[in-house]
Amino acid sequence: MDAAWAIDWLRRSAAVVAEHRVALSELDRAIGDGDHGENLDRGFTAILAKLDEEAPPTPGAAFKMAAMTLISKVGGAAGPLYGTAFLRAGTAVGDAAALDSALLVAALTAARDGVVARGKAESGDKTMIDAWTPAVDAAAAADRSAPAAVLAAAAEAAEAGAVATDPLIARKGRASYLGERSMGHRDPGAASSALILRAAADAAAAAAPAGASGTGA
Questions:
Q1: What gap in Å lies between CA 121 and CA 61, rounded to an integer?
Q2: pLDDT confidence of 172, banded at 50, 70, 90?
Q3: Coarse DSSP helix, strand, coil percentages of the chain, rounded to the nearest 5 percent
Q4: pTM for this structure?
Q5: pLDDT digits (tens, 9 = 90+) for 100-129
Q6: Which CATH number fits domain 3-207: 1.20.58.480, 3.10.270.10, 1.25.40.340, 1.10.390.10?
Q7: How far apart are CA 147 and CA 91, in angstroms?
């Protein structure tokens, strides 16, 4: 998974965020400020502009560019949280020209840990961590598979984790003010995390040669 994959991931993320912009804001309207989709769309639109100006030479450079852009362009909690995630991922992979399965797991783990450090949330708090932690666990369990399979496992687990936030009572963020009234609503950060991790898997599937979804990095 080289710079071309990382760039494709960011472009696919921008597309899927734009597609689901209204739905994400509607999720946020139920238990938050109602601007999650709008904010993320603004940030990823800015990332597209940066990519059009100059293509990052490595995955790590792409992640750090995305981080700085999201932190500077996205309001609310989403900018700092996603920015920290991409920044930590970029630091974890360093200047590597391409990422094997082990480095992908390291990047996802660092991203998740960055969100935890920034947001002080744990699994079960009804936040984006409820998508990221299952994704990291699934990726780690698949780390002897090819990179595309690692990312596919992470995306599938993130999607299931986002759905699993529906019955939870929020314990962090603005949604926590609602108490039991937050039950029955999907966490918007978990939903957007699942979309973005699926974009990573889709980019990997597009980049992987035929037959590269099995074992071996």
A1: 27
A2: low
A3: 70, 0, 25
A4: 0.90
A5: 999 999 999 999 999 999 888 888 778 899
A6: 1.25.40.340
A7: 19
